[in-house]
Amino acid sequence: MSASESPRPSGADRCGGPAALPKARALVEALPWLARHRGKTVVIKFGGNAMVDDGLKAAFAKDVLFLRHAGLHPVVVHGGGPQISAQLRRLGLESRFEGGLRVTTDETMDVVRMVLAGQVQRELVGLLNEHGPHAVGMTGEDARLMTAVKRYASAGGKPVDIGRVGEVVHVDTGALRALIADGRIPVISSIARPLDDKDAAGGGVFNVNADTAAAALAAALGAEALLILTDVAGLYANWPHADEVIPRLTARELTALLPRLASGMVPKMEGCLYAVTNGVRSARIVDGRVKHSVLLPIFTDEDAGTVVVPDGADGAEGATA
Ligand SMILES: Nc1ncnc2c1ncn2[C@@H]1O[C@H](COP(=O)(O)OP(=O)(O)O)[C@@H](O)[C@H]1O
Ligand SMILES: CC(=O)N[C@@H](CCC(=O)OP(=O)(O)O)C(=O)O
């Protein structure tokens, strides 16, 4: 059939047919959220466990770019625990954790820095920059972004020395804000510069848990939201029974729950609590195994994972990312 003989398409066909309607509806539904979040900063922590699949990584990069093109300012903080452990294994070195924190010798720290800044961060920057000159990688060492003091783990109420593990005590957002203002997407590795010259001797740095780093950055930036992507659907009420995800917690409710939580979730929920008690409007644990899990809580009023809100926040759930 020649073009002149083609039947005249119906109105619906010309618009992509009835199958396209849900797409159009989704776009229209996103409109109020687009207006609401425009110009706001969102810190997204991409956990090492959610980062094991290439398809998920590519989808994550697209989501982050979508946020950027929708006028938000995404800041990515990445993990890499499993990737560090794999590299240590290859080198014949052991991985040991105390209270969810890696025991970090000087030798371990070299591997942590190499894997986080040299491998995981590079890969994410590369994926984001496949679509344009958007992403810039940094560690907490760059422009003194994060300064830390030595952190101890706790066992039976006693402090345990876990080596070169740091607790962020100061964030200098200058370079980060300049990148954001320039429309770039910062991709940050959780390594910090020591406050004390003695810890910094010989170029020493600290290994910071990536959830903790993301929370410190979200608070320092006055972010609208902190999203933590991990490998579970949210915070389960009766762990290890993965039956019921807690949809929403206030800061006070989370404070009461924290002493009963198991290790993987402790730095995440502590980070959420820190963020919402230091100016961030909402902090959410999201299932990073689900493609486009970043977009749903920001652009729809779908319940996703577990959201933590400051005490006294109204019930307007969709208003929180
Ligand atoms: N109450 C809970 N709800 C959900 N997951 C929990 C809970 N308590 C402990 N976990 C564990 O925390 C893990 C997530 O933390 P982690 O392994 O450090 O992930 P990531 O690499 O994303 O930081 C989950 O896979 C789960 O095994
Ligand atoms: C002190 C400490 O434990 N640091 C972490 C840093 C990476 C991290 O936090 O990665 P995930 O988010 O993937 O767990 C580590 O060495 O594994």
Automatic annotation (TrEMBL):
User: Pfam families, alphabetically?
Assistant: AA_kinase (PF00696)
Q: Which keywords has UniProt assigned to this entry? A: Amino-acid biosynthesis, Arginine biosynthesis, ATP-binding, Cytoplasm, Kinase, Nucleotide-binding, Transferase
Any idea where this protein resides? Cytoplasm
Which catalysed reactions does the entry list for this protein?
A: N-acetyl-L-glutamate + ATP = N-acetyl-L-glutamyl 5-phosphate + ADP
Known pathway? Amino-acid biosynthesis; L-arginine biosynthesis; N(2)-acetyl-L-ornithine from L-glutamate: step 2/4
Keyword Kinase attributed: yes
Could you tell me what this protein is called? Acetylglutamate kinase
- The gene name on file is argB
- What is the top-level taxon of the source organism? Bacteria
Chief location of this protein within or outside the cell: cytoplasm
Entry's SUPFAM superfamilies? Carbamate kinase-like (SSF53633)
- Annotated Aspartate/glutamate/uridylate kinase domain ranges read 40-287
Record bears the keyword Ribonucleoprotein? no
User: Site Transition state stabilizer: which residues?
Assistant: 45, 268
Which leading EC class covers this enzyme? transferase
* UniProt xrefs under InterPro entries: AceGlu_kinase-like_sf, AcgluKinase_fam, ArgB, Asp/Glu/Uridylate_kinase, Glu/AcGlu_kinase
Q: Molecular function terms in GO for this entry?
A: acetylglutamate kinase activity
Annotated substrate binding lies at 80-81, 102, 207
Family designation: Belongs to the acetylglutamate kinase family. ArgB subfamily.
Per the entry, what this protein does is: Catalyzes the ATP-dependent phosphorylation of N-acetyl-L-glutamate.
Record-listed E.C. numbers: 2.7.2.8
